[in-house]
Every structure is written in structure tokens, then in C-alpha cells.
Amino acid sequence: MDLGIKGKRAIVCASSKGLGRACAMKLAEAGVNLTLNARTQETLEQTAEEIRRATGVEVKAVAADVTTEEGRAAILAAEPAPDILVNNAGGPPPGVWSDWGEAEWGSAIKGNMLTPILLATAVMPGMIERGWGRVVSITSGSVKSPIPQLGLSNGARAGLTGFVAGTARQVAKHGVIMNNLLPGSHETDRIDALMNAIAAKEGITAAEAKKRSHAANPTGRFGFPEEFGAACAFLCSQHVGFMVGQNILLDGGAFNSTMG
Fold first, then answer.
1. How many helical (H) and strand (E) elements, i.e. helices and strands, does the chain have?
2. Which residues contact residue 142 at a Cβ distance below 8 angstroms, ignoring those fewer than 6 apart?
3. What is the pTM of this model?
């Protein structure tokens, strides 16, 4: 399928590896020019070069902390007029409610709620002026089905979801489409860290924890980043003009519900 976005320009956050990298690669395969962002310069530059070689699109790499005003300014200086914004950030650490005070909540809200909101509000006026834009925010399956040990993520990402729900319906008439993409467990460094945490807590090996988690999913496995990236690219395409403010769950059927 032709996604109809060849020649568009995109900012993809947290895109040096994992799900963000997969989204960037699939957008590049559709002919989108990219500005990638992550904190680690070496890994980011390596990813940028791999995407350039594989697809031939223009790829800029901005090593910066997107949760800071300076980091966001650097990204927007590199790409001041994006057609597409993919919001993405690593989640806060697992724990229990009694572990989290004001500092922990402040960090989670800053990284997983305020940062994507501020980026979106920075780029959407230009999108509105040009009459076309796509904002895809990667949140989490925990927005629909809370994960007890990820309470910080549950709360912060739910706040972002509420912002998108209202704002998407205000900007859609201008050709700017906002949706959220909710990953379940995928084969990434993040899931490896969670498996290690479960293993340590329960006195089992990480491999045993992963095997048990695989068995609990209707597909018998975790998702592949490439699958997730393809879904992200579709949400950035010309074909979603009537899909507004939705929460698209990619979890292999782990969330058990009839009506979503």
C-alpha cells in the first residue's frame, strides 16, 4: 500500500532503538525524511546512518534530552516544520505506590505527559497553517489495562491520553490528525528490563519469566518492533483522515475485552 506520505518530514522521538527506531524505519521506507532524537549520540548516529543506507531518505540526528526545554528547542531547530510527529519516551521504573513521592511523580509526568504535549503544541500551529499533519503518541497498553508495578507510567500516560482525546477533536477540521499507539509487550530492551525485575522479585530466571509471559499471550509470543513500526507508519499516512483521537492497542490480544 502506498501510504501517500513520500517527501513528508517527520520528527521521531526516542528513535535510536526499540519501537521508536522501528517507527522511523517504516516511515523512511515510505519515503519520509526524518529527524531522529535520542540521548546517546553514538547509538543515534549509527541508527541514522543505517536508515540512510537502507532507504535513501534524508535523516538528521539530534542527540538531546527531549524532556528538557533545551532538548526540544534543538529538535525543533533541526526540523522547524514537521508534517509528522511521533512522540515516544521510555517509561518510568517499576515499583509500588509506597516507593513514589513528589520527585518520582514529577519525573514521570514530565517525561510521559508534559513532554509530548509540549512538542505537539509546538508543531501543530504549523501543521494547521499548512492544512495537514499527523501526531502519533506512543503510550502503553497499560492505559487500557493498568499494570500494577507500572503505576507511574499508568498515571502519566493516562494524562497524555486525556489531552489527545480532547485536542484531536479540535484540530481534525484543519487536517491535523492525532491518535495514540498503545504497545503491549514487544521484543525490546524495555521488556527485558521488566522480565529481569519480575525474575528478581519471584526468584526465577529471566528466561522463565519470559516463557511464562509468552504463554499468557493469545499469540504465544511478544510483538516484533517491525509490526509496531508498520502500524505507526499507517497512522501517519494519508489514509487516516477520518480516524480521530483513537487509542490503537497492539498487544496480541492480551487485553481481554469485547468492545475495546
1. 9, 7
2. 150, 153, 154, 157
3. 0.94
- Name the phi and psi angles at 13, rounded to 5: -85, 155
Indicate whether 260 pLDDT > 80: no
67 vs 69: CA distance, rounded Å: 7
* Cβ contacts of 201-210, under 8 Å, gap ≥ 24: none
What one-letter code names the amino acid at 202? E
Contact criterion met (CB below 8 Å) for 256 and 249:
no
At residue 252 the predicted structure's pLDDT band, cuts being 50, 70 and 90, is very high
CA–CA gap between residue 32 and residue 46 (Å, rounded) = 18
pLDDT, tens only, 57-97:
999 999 999 999 999 999 999 999 999 999 999 888 889 99
Is residue 21 within 8 Å of residue 94, measured between CB atoms?
no
